[in-house]
Flavohemoprotein
Amino acid sequence: MLSEQTIQIIKSTVPVLEVHGVAITKRFYQRLFTAHPELLNLFNHANQKQGRQQTALANAVYAAALHIDRLEMILPAVKQIAHKHRSLGVKPEQYPIVGEHLLAAIKEVLGDAATDEILGAWAEAYGVIASAFIGIESDMYTNSALQPGGWSDFRAFVIARKDRESDVITSFYLTPQDQGPIAAFEAGQYVSIRVQIPGDEHTHIRQYSLSHTSGQPFYRISVKREDTNPAVPAGKVSVYLHNGIQEGDVVWLSAPAGDFTLDSTDTRPVTLLSGGVGLTPMVSMLHALVTTQPDRKVTFIHATQNGEHHALRAEVEQLAKEHPQVTVAWCYAQPTSDDRGAQAFHKEGYLDLPWIQSLVPTTDGSFYFCGPLPFMKTVNQSLIAWGVPEANRHYEFFGPAGALS
């Protein structure tokens, strides 16, 4: 427990963190990766270059300071991050390293304003928060290892099959090299994949949503090749998976993780909205819904550039054909002439609230959505404008968490 004096000191730094938080986290990562370059490959390089990782950490530190007297308020965020840490293989001995460089970054950025009293309070607070993470993650490692077909760290998997789903998305079917059973998972969860890229000193780890249903003898991930937008840094691992990894090659996987999952106790209508490669957890959810809740009404809405970018379309349409409670709708931003000729989409342009309302008859249901940040902001703001309460809006960020306001 933190003393009242420590709590008050931490809360007094909230306005400072609001202004200087990102500068502190930028300096933190610079220090951390200079001293421990082996840790860099736990992180997505593109997110680092775009500043998304730094902003997400700054937001987390700010939230911790704001709620330092009621840390239970940030418990959902702690559990979400702990899932990612367990999936990445983060260990207790790494927390003191992070604490050392975070406190040093605070001192460097704030200068004389970071008094010994403030640094002491933050050191104490960091110790409490780190202990919470270590405890939660320890339980996660144990539960992961003890579940049927489970394991605690990384396990060798073979690329059993590699399917090109669209111009930019490829599916990888992964089976365990030891041919043993594999852990079940909840629709919406992800795995971490660890690869050794030729010429790179350290391994790389990335997280990808599982895009099929649990209970199969394989895991499937469907990966977008992130090198088509010159304004965005290329994704080193995604490009390697597309161009360098072949059927029969071996990669290393964590057991499934993540808390973006279906509420199986809810029987109300459910709407699944996705943009681009954000459809991967939604397809998994659709498989689960038609299998475990065959009477539940499902509306599956997907937005993408055009038919050449539209992955897993035939699979989703086949599920809808077999299960009449499922309705599907496609929104193409820039349909091709072939798309127009085949009448392959239901809306041209971008997803908006009137179109969602034309497809979904009621706000009394659950809404799950995933995709690029602009897409998610549009969906979230549309649902808020429609009066969908927060408890019925569920979403997942690909990469570091951001703001949808």
Observations:
- Residues 32 and 187 are 34 Å apart (CA to CA).
- The chain is about 45% helix and 20% strand.
